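To fix ideas, we give here one paired sequence and structure record:
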Amino acid sequence: MVNEDVENRVINLAVRTTRITAGDLYKALRAYMRHIQNKKQLRQAAKDSVTKGKQSVKELVGQGQGVSSMEIGDSGIRDFKRIANKYGVDFAIVKDKNENPPKYTVFFKAKDADAITSVLKEYSDRLNKRKKEAGKERPSILNKLKKFKEIVANTPLKHREKRKEQER
């Protein structure tokens, strides 16, 4: 008898907790709709935001502002990226793997023409500076060391007289 009473109470409690009221269902649906709306807004914001700097060719062309291209040698691509980012140019770099050494083609937005010219000017200045530095022969450190050794060997040493006196 006592067990039956306990069983009935447990069953009644289980039934009461599993019943969903219309208000609970309404609240759950509203929360779900808000969640979906937030996701849509985030997707739209990500779609609307324009990426800056380095991007894929597909993204660059997808912006619909026209694209121009230029070939660049394999040296100094990192410098080129830094300079282009400094000037705020949108660009995409594609490596031509068929050639040895590989050549890179850089795609730009057509509207960035003024910025492109200044980027290319600074980039070419850096390349020329590097070539000039590479053309100069650096003096050998060993030769410098030998030269300084000779100078030190030729300088006369001062002889000091050392006397020890006892103090009382």
Notes: The CA atoms of residues 65 and 103 lie 25 Å apart. The two ends are 118 Å apart (CA to CA). The longest strand covers residues 103-109. Helices lie at 2-18, 22-48, 57-62, 77-86, 113-135, 141-154.
